[in-house]
Amino acid sequence: MNDVPIRELIGLLAIAVASTLAGANARGADTSHSQSDRPNVVFFIADDMLPRHFNCLAEGKGRNLTPNLDRLAGEGVVMMNQYCASPICTPSRYNVLTGTYASRATNPAFLQTTKDNGGQTKVEFNTHIMQDTPTLPRMLKQAGYETAMVGKNHVVEVAGLKTFPDFDASAKAPENVARLKANHDKVCQAIREVGFDYVDRVYHNNPHFLGLHEVAVQNMEWITEGAVNFLDQDHDRPFFLYIATTVPHGPTNGPQSWNADPLISPLGYLDRVPDVQPARQTIPKRIRTAGLSVNDDTCNLLWLDDALGALIEKLEQTHQLQNTVIFFYSDHGQKAKGTLYEGGVHNPSIVWRPGGFPVGSTSDAIVHVVDFAPTIVQIAGLDPSTGAFDGESFLGYLNGMPEPSDRVLYFELGYTRAVRKGSWKYLAVRYPAEIENMSMEQRTRILENWNAARRRRHVRIVTEDPSLPFSHLTAIPGGGDAESGSTGSLPGYHDRDQLYNLDEDPGERNNLAGVPEYAGKLREMKQILNAHVSRLPGTFGEFGK
Known about the structure:
alpha/beta; globular; disordered N terminus
């Protein structure tokens, strides 16, 4: 059987199964929470999780106390070959919420950067969702779903936020409290305008970038309470809940994360401590009882797992769990964040529903971050072809259909692009001429300005040396903080063209681009990359338009 019939069968089977996802278990539900024959969907996206944080992966087995995440993995499907397109926070969230590549962004900052680079797009923290951007929540809302978002934004464009002249000013000062609340209100309204009905408890950015040092802490319970409040409402329609945690992204130290003052939030100081998760002081004791080491890593993971548990418990209490599909995903691979190497783009996910899926507890199907939106659309009983997605639904794979053998994955970030087909990976590094030829004076000025802004926020400095080469992600000497752990980490990092056989070289340490016997494969992979770049806005070096 060739690939075309397989794809057709996958689509037909997936549509048929989507209409019965809730199953017989939905019968007998509490009438105070009206159920639909279409399933609810909860998309739980964590921030900067590593393979060692997952007990369901070899790197993390037995290292974490995460009973709720373990339940999802044990009863659902671990997508072992899940990939992300752009391994940093903002574009990855763009991919999830639109089903498209982040180079399609149309926000002013992204378009200006493209113009400044002579038409070459630069995907980084600048790819924002606008009011007119086609989004997954908007599509679901138009189809009759109730849509909700809580937690970390870092992707929806918000204009007119008030600034704080003094980063160290008091978060109790009335004028600063008013500023924090006004900013939160603006953020919530902007998120509503891209397709969400219910929006609450939002971190617009990472804690250090909320405006005041005093509120630069994590508050998982505050986010969770917003999600629980939504789930506790009477729902006469199916719902889509997108919950985005701020952990285990930094700050990870206890006083600013799992052991911080629970009254501190992006709104300043709360009147009461949210009471939706086990008390924070119980976290170390529970970890010790499980025979594990107590440290910020294990504590933050249990704290996050408690949030997931609170959602599952509320869904059970309200008799909605039996009609709910849960996706669990970390925004990108953290082993090589800020690069398109496997440690950045390979990023397993979990999909759960009552009774599991026919495929079993794991799937080796190669799927992409842009596939989430069309998959969720199909689960909702809609036709994914009606959306302008770059991805494709993988619901058929969950239901046991074979995957085609010709899937090509495309990746984009900063000054790099990459494609993978089968065991072969090609990665290209292209800096615009003005960056490639930057003077030492310009380099020094850029680095000094970058470091000055970081000192003001009391965050670490990567380097003081303006002579260091740029990273794949930023034109900052030595690279930025997000990619600091991976900058220059592999032998071929600074090579213009990189070709790897992942079956033989999974660590991408042996660049074959300059080996004559692989010249044909290099040409083939360049052509594949060129085809993808040509279909997207902007240019990339000599590729595409």
